[in-house]
Amino acid sequence: MNKYFAKMTDEWVDFTAKTVSFAALSGEEKKTADFYLAALEELGVECFRDGCGNVVGVLRGEGKGPNVMLNGHMDVVPAGNMEAWAPYKPFDPVVEDGKLYGRGTSDMLAGLSATFFAFREIKKAVDRGAKLSGDLIFSAVVMEEPAESVGAIYLMKETLPQHNLHPDLVYLAEPTNGDLGLGHRGKVELVMEVHGHVAHSSAPQEGINAVEKAQPLIAAAFQNFGEPSMTHEKLGYSAMTITDVVVTPGKMYSCVPDLCEITLDRRYVPPATIPDTIAQVQRCIDALAAQDPEFKAEVHQRMNHRVCYTGYETDVPKQHPAWITDRDNEFVEKSFKALRAIGQNPPEWYWKGGTDGSIFCGLYGIPTIGYAFEEVPQAHQPKEYIVINDMMDCVEGYTAMLCEIYGIDFAQFTE
Hints:
By secondary structure, the chain is of the alpha+beta class. Helix content is 33%, strand content 25%. The longest helix is centred in the first third of the chain and has 23 residues, at 105-127.
């Protein structure tokens, strides 16, 4: 990190600590959104809040492209067991031994603020006369943590088209340990419903027990439904597991259950798709039904109803489509070149979990690159922290990559 960016350290820490203190759980991001909107207004750039609560800032370019979007989410997961945080408090950020402690620091408030500071540096360069060939977009979205991408979907489907914004590249500030993240496996949550016939539990022979009928389906799920797992040279292997079983009418009543609802967490890799994962379960259901005329079951995606802090409501599937950006993509090459020029030498990397890259690249086909010095193992953990100097390297890295893409002289940001 050069001295130019080192001088921003205290300001960046104060800025990021404020966002931690807002305790922005999913659906409760208003204070963080207000904070970013005010910061963008202070910069004097075009900025707005959309219908579901995302915040966007724009530096318009000359229309030649490429258009680049910096993206991160504002929401954080709950703190969990407070005793596990001792001596810290999750939403009372503390600086200690060069680290900033607090819920959401690693996932991903520090990365989001790093992109904002880089956006601000490019604004300064423009004020000094630099030209942007394309638009530079800063976007802070809501409700990523439920793994449904409500904010990202709204951003891409509604907000950006309404404002004539069309990104050619997305930088995603999720934790990558400072590596360049180029994709991840897909995730879909499936619901398998097995039906029976209710009866009094004192006379079980008069009913059809849905739990009994579900047993072969559950066993098949733990055996990958009798089909081989898939592997991908970059993204790894497919996997599945049962995460929940709910029986109706349930333990309050003396009843033979007539419904057994089984939740299946399915991770898949290309070329498989979400419809393929559903079809795999359906094949098993059909086979079981052919063997047992009393077996009745169906499978569908988990749908959840979500309400944003603005009041916007939507029903959304619990999924993260698989995505990957080619290593030889021109923007990936330029990103590696820019980081190496400032002394960083990151490898390519692929997440185990999910991100909003599923929307930007997985659904819309926009090359997406993850980058932030937040440590992946810290995400969602008690005593969550980031290393401050590493995150200042991240601000420098984002600024360098944007300069490389737009042809701006990075030397103006060195001392």
